[in-house]
């Protein structure tokens, strides 16, 4: 029988999920503003972009959106395969596996920072590379959040899922996980607002905010694992 997670560990995991939601909003805003109007977390948006053939520079948009979708899907599959032994949802993580997903995401985002800082993203091929790396990073974050979240139904990269869970709970008059879901939804636009400020004031630092938030989320997961083991 799985022992119930400690309350402090559960709270720490929720902090991590909220950070991941914030980071997703920041990452999507960075990609949209600086990487050719492509999303790295919102694949619904990319599917729509891939069909908007009358948009200026449609070919570049099409290549970017399809690249993001393929990278996101591939790393989603990889992440779920790597964590397939941990299918039972819980709000207290087995940090040795799920932290590795976040570490992988952090490494990919660090490469995005290097591509951006050294100016490689200004070339079309460099921009596509940055989109692919950032989408892969957000996919790993999505898997980590899915494995970390309990029955609260929090999704950190696609707000439609969280909004659906929220409205379902309201309709069924269930309060389980409502607060964390609502705050998670609000963290997405907050992350986008903060990233927009960064891009407007110090464009060179654009990809650094999502990376810093991912580091903080990984740290929270590690802390939660240690709290549970004590």
Query: What's the pLDDT, averaged over the residues?
Result: 82
CATH architecture: Up-down Bundle
- Give the overall shape: globular
How would you describe the oligomerization state of the chains in this entry? single chain
Strand percentage lies at under 5%
Number of helices: 8
Q: Indicate the low-confidence ranges by residue numbers.
A: 1-6, 88-96
Number of strands: 0
Distance between the termini: 18 Å
Summed up, the domain count is 1
CATH class: Mainly Alpha
Rg (C-alpha, Å): 17 Å
Largest sheet: none
Instruction: Please name the CATH topology.
Output: Growth Hormone, Chain: A
Features:
230 residues; mainly alpha; Growth Hormone, Chain: A; 73% helix; globular; disordered N terminus; transmembrane
What is this structure's SSE topology?
Elements: H1 7-34, H2 43-49, H3 58-82, H4 95-117, H5 124-148, H6 159-171, H7 178-201, H8 208-229
Helix pairs in contact: 1-5, 1-7, 1-8, 2-3, 3-5, 4-5, 4-8, 6-7
């Amino acid at each position: 029988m799985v022992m119930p997670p400690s309350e402090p560990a559960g709270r720490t995991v929720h902090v991590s999920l909220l950070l991941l939601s914030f980071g997703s909003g920041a990452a999507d805003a960075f990609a949209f503003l600086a990487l050719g109007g492509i999303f790295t977390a919102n694949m619904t948006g990319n599917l729509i972009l891939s069909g908007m053939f009358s948009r200026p520079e449609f070919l570049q948009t099409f290549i970017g959106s399809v690249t993001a979708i393929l990278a996101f899907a591939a790393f989603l599959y990889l992440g779920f395969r790597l964590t397939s032994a941990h299918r039972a949802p819980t709000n207290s993580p087995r940090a040795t596996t799920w932290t590795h997903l976040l570490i992988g995401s952090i490494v990919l985002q660090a490469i995005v920072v290097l591509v951006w800082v050294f100016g490689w993203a200004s070339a079309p091929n460099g921009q596509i590379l940055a989109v692919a790396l950032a989408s892969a990073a957000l996919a790993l974050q999505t898997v980590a959040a899915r494995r970390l979240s309990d029955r609260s139904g929090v999704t950190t990269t696609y707000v439609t899922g969280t909004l659906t869970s929220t409205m379902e709970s309201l309709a069924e008059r269930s309060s389980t996980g409502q607060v964390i879901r609502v705050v998670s939804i609000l963290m997405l636009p907050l992350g986008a607002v903060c990233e927009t400020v960064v891009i407007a004031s110090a464009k060179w630092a654009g990809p650094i905010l999502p990376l810093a938030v991912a580091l903080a989320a990984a740290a929270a997961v590690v802390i939660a694992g240690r709290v549970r083991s004590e």
